[in-house]
């Protein structure tokens, strides 16, 4: 009996073991749990419904639990549908025999579903701020995921849930309404920790990749950290301007090719407020093209623009402040030099520093008559700060090349690029004429002192005399109010001519010269004096005397040869209008193309030959003219000489039209006309037989580069010409009376006539 019972018991145990093994391996199908699962789900949300196929139950012997699995279930939430690949749950072994069956966990693997549908599903489980944010941002996308959710004793979700998934074809709308497309990544969600890995996306045609982005919930905020990179991309500049809010209109590229490596972190509140933003980036930009016509005056041979090649740029960003540093190859007409730079934003100020290593490129500083030649090493450093209102301050400009140097300290500009102040300038170099050129400028309060032992002022003088601007040389300043003291031992005004003991005192108010006193001597020891005074009527009175006219006159290109002479100039100026008189005495002209043409057309070839040979002498040149609004009205130009005399008037429209008319008369004709005047004519030139009165009238008209000259012979001189000639002779006779020891008037007049012949 005992043996039989033992055998039966063994069989039962074997059957139980076999059943357990079978149940563990193959499981059994049942519908009993369908109702339990649906009931549990409906308890959480009545809008939830789940369509389950037959559930297969497996035995977990080790944990003394049952595991229920089903394939291809469908979860419905309101109008949303989520298709699952499988779902499983764990049940206590004894709960199957009770009415209070408890679900300990839930595992599911989804098929490919719409992201928006799954977000709604997730919010039903736990309506977190993260999911709310996602709902606002997601436009489209597909997702598959695998989740493990544990339940507490009271049936709520335990915090140790894990969700692992893959997302593709995601389209997001950012807070600024921009769109990011083609997003792909894997992710893991554990409690309050979110990890995104192997991510890629496209934003504004830029391809992004990321190894890891981590999101962690802390104190109701979300902490983001991670990295991303961009491979070589062709990027439109309009896009860069939009992303970084930069004005890049000056850059010529339609697009740039770049790559980058980036690390970042920031906090995001539930109200979508960003804080504690940090970023560290490294950019590689192949080339930037920058057209700038103003660089032509600095770089000889400059043509199309500047290229910045092989740009390596580092960015450190933190809460609105950042520092950008980088290196680049400066490419001008295929001459390549090195450039280093840094830009730091602190609050509303931008601090910058540039370091140019200029070797391959030539550098031209025209005002200083200096050119750094190609293949000679030099260095240019510029440091400063730009303010919020676009005003900027240059701490220093340092240029060094061998023993040549230029140093500038503390230059302050307003928002309109007007100079507010400059503290110090030091120049010490050998210029293009192999001359030492030195300059020192110092500011003390609002006043300036400018000193030099020797300085080349040829180009600066050209700038002042021939500037096309209607404004003052001091208009580069904001509103200059200053006393300026200038003291040069030697200053060159042409390549050959210089002034010594050059001293100037200037009073300037609101960029206007109110008073000026200049005294100096030419290299030939003649005096140069200039005075500018402002009277109570706010009229500016200008007086200039140059004992040597040649250095000043030869600055003008239309006069190729000028010898001798002294010069007097006076002018009254008010409200940008002026009335002026210029006189030049006792000089000789050679190689004056306009005069040569006029003499040739007048068939005065003999005199024309003089002009191209030894030159034509003039006793006096006088010009009376007015300037207003770019129009020079010439009331009269009268030139008297032993060979010819000229009387003319007209106007010159600045940079536009020239219109002159006048009379040209050989000296022999002048003598005959004067000789025909009773008594006076006998005394001056006497009586001679010969040809009748002869001269020419002429017109010069056209644009400066295309002047047309016409002449017409005349038989009778105008009373105006005769009157002006007699006035000049009278003044000259009085002058010679003072110079000669003759008591009798005939002797005086003979003295004058002899001087005319000589």
Question: What keywords describe this structure?
Answer:
39-stranded mixed sheet; rod-shaped; 758 residues; 4 domains; disordered C terminus; two-stranded antiparallel ribbon; 13 helices
What does this structure look like?
The structure is a single chain. The protein is of the alpha+beta class and 758 residues long. It has 4 domains: 24-125 and 136-173, no CATH class; 291-432, no CATH class; 456-591, no CATH class; 622-757, no CATH class. 19% of the residues lie in helices and 53% in strands. The chain has 13 helices and 41 strands. The strands form 2 sheets. The chain has a 39-stranded mixed sheet that branches. Helix 3 runs antiparallel to helix 4. The protein is rod-shaped and about 170 Å long.
Query: Please, what is the oligomeric state?
Result: single chain
Secondary structure class reads alpha+beta
Number of domains: 4
How much strand?
over 45%
- The number of strands is 41
Sheet bearing the most strands, described?
39 strands, mixed
Low-confidence stretches: 672-693, 733-758
Radius of gyration: 48 Å
Mean pLDDT: 79
Terminal CA distance reads 171 Å
Helix content: 10-25%
How many helices? 13
**Shape, per Cα inertia axes:** rod-shaped
